[in-house]
Amino acid sequence: MSSARPSRLFRNKSAKIAAIPMIVTALFVFVGGTVWTIVYSFTKSGLLPRLKWVGLDQYERLWSTRKWLVSIENLAIYGFCTLVLVFVIGFILAALIDQKIRFENTIRTVILYPYALSFVVTGLVWQWILNPEFGVQKIVRSWGWESFQFDPLYTADIAIYGVLIAGLWQGSGLVMVLMLAGLRGIDQDVWKAARIDGIPAWKTYLFIVIPMMRPVFITTLVLVVTGIVKIYDLIVAQTGGGPGIATEVPAKYVYDSMFRANNLGQGFAASTMMLLTVALIVIPWAILEFGGSRNRD
Amino acid sequence: MCAVLPPALSRVEIMSNSIEIKNLDLNFGSIEVLQNLNLDVGKGEFLVLLGSSGCGKSTLLNCIAGLLDVTAGQIHINNKNVTWAEPSERGIGMVFQSYALYPQMTVEGNLSFGLKNAKLPKAEIADRVKRAADILQIEPLLKRKPAALSGGQRQRVAIGRALVRDVDVFLFDEPLSNLDAKLRADLRVEIKRLHQKLENTMVYVTHDQIEAMTLADRIAIMRGGKIMQLGTPDEIYGLPMNKYVADFIGSPSMNFIDGSIQNGVFTAGDLAISLTGYEFTSGEAVDGGATLGIRPEHVITGELVSHSPYCIDVEVELIEPTGSDKLIDCQVAGHLFRVRMDGQAQVSVGEVLRLGIDPARASLFDAATEVRL
Ligand SMILES: Nc1ncnc2c1ncn2[C@@H]1O[C@H](COP(=O)(O)OP(=O)(O)O)[C@@H](O)[C@H]1O
Ligand SMILES: [Mg+2]
Fold it and tell me: So what CATH class is B17-247?
């Protein structure tokens, strides 16, 4: 054994070479783009980026714009409700299907189908369904309930809930299949053991099965949360942000500032705020999950 | 081999039954897994269900546990009809091959979760957990999670979970099959000790005949959802009631020679063995097609051959030394014939060996029905 141990840098050479394009992309596009955006959010960029410093002006303006505040509020409502409901609905559907029911494949496909649609289609479909002229309201009224009123998309106070319905319709299927896969991965003997211990089904789900499905829950959570933060197309297709600014969301605010109002600086400031919010959620979680004691199961 | 009617059998008959299975049928859709199965397990008995994979052992055990709804028939446990009772109300504890521990709970949590759920007083729960941990020597592990335990320790915790339930009947579904050979042997002994200590009824499923032979008071050999023979390990080994059981039990397996019986003599090829000394189940010799079975270890070799009722010369084809024994392959009446000799015996391939066959230690099966004659 005379030859020296190869340096760590050159071990697994081929794997490292193969990863170079991704590393370069990550560095230049993601990190570079992020830094660039943050830097320019402190400038007075309009139609084109210009390095004319204005300090925190863009942020002050951002936080005194009503449209931005409404966007944040909407995202909070939409995000919270989606997160809770999509998990509850998705899990319950999965648990029902897991009872070895008949036509499982058909039902699974039907429920997952909306996910295969683009948000634009979902938005349009639900725009029609919720339209008082020819949607649900019209149908119920035609059955004889003349005073029935259901037009969330035309009532500013609750318009965001109209969007929420569409979002749930589209998102629940994905959560359901992920949860179903998780449930199917549970050793059937654990269920048997719980039955012999006399533990009711709901308790078995709550205290045994769901804790066992932690990895699935985390994956699903990441998918759902990213979907929530970047919500844009559904709004554009379904309400266009209206009525008024009732259903504006941050991603749309960014787009509108940059490409409609020709105010790049303002868009960058809004993007930076979104990034900051995500970072505030993700970093503590990552520290909790991966830092600290490594020997957890 | 003398046909001892072992004391265990009579003991079982005197005692009342702990589990009674009456005319049990179980179908999965159109697949009939168990058909008209009857089985009684005595109080305090260790019954092993033995059979190859897919023969319905686990299905039967799950029926006893109430984890499967039976198609027809009845199950009684401790003289109560529990056919439609919930698993938790049957007075049973169960141990699974995959351990089936609750992975997110500590060992203590695993042991106490069912009891907490049954709203037992805290002191009582603590007592039971402590007692189980004492018996199974798992106190040092109580605060750990299953992921931090070895396979043997996990299975001990799983047994503990059955133990704390304070029940009369334990059901085991291949509890040792996931362990390596050494651990398996150790835990096997522990289960036997546990049975002696607790004196409760145990029904134990396995496909490993060594496990079955060493643990069981009685063994039920299953095939295709039916019980082929139910008896003590001695009976199963010495008096197999059909060819399947004879072939299944014993390693290396029994030698079979197809032939026929005429006037109390078994003939096959140039073989003509007088059956004097063989105990026919019907009491007297039967004529007709038959299969003679004799275990490799019951073939007489060495000096004793001269005293044996029937002798035959064979040529040694192959020798497999195992240390304690030597296994010899040869041909008898056109069939492969294996003989177990002492490990120290001097033999070489090609040598002519004289073997002795004693009908009293052989088994005869009807050629058509494969039932013991
Ligand atoms: N849920 C099920 N659905 C259909 N067939 C099953 C089911 N469970 C078991 N079986 C069939 O029943 C037979 C017995 O299975 P099992 O009792 O698990 O055998 P083993 O003796 O190996 O424990 C097998 O042939 C198996 O294919
Ligand atoms: Mg099995």
Answer: alpha beta
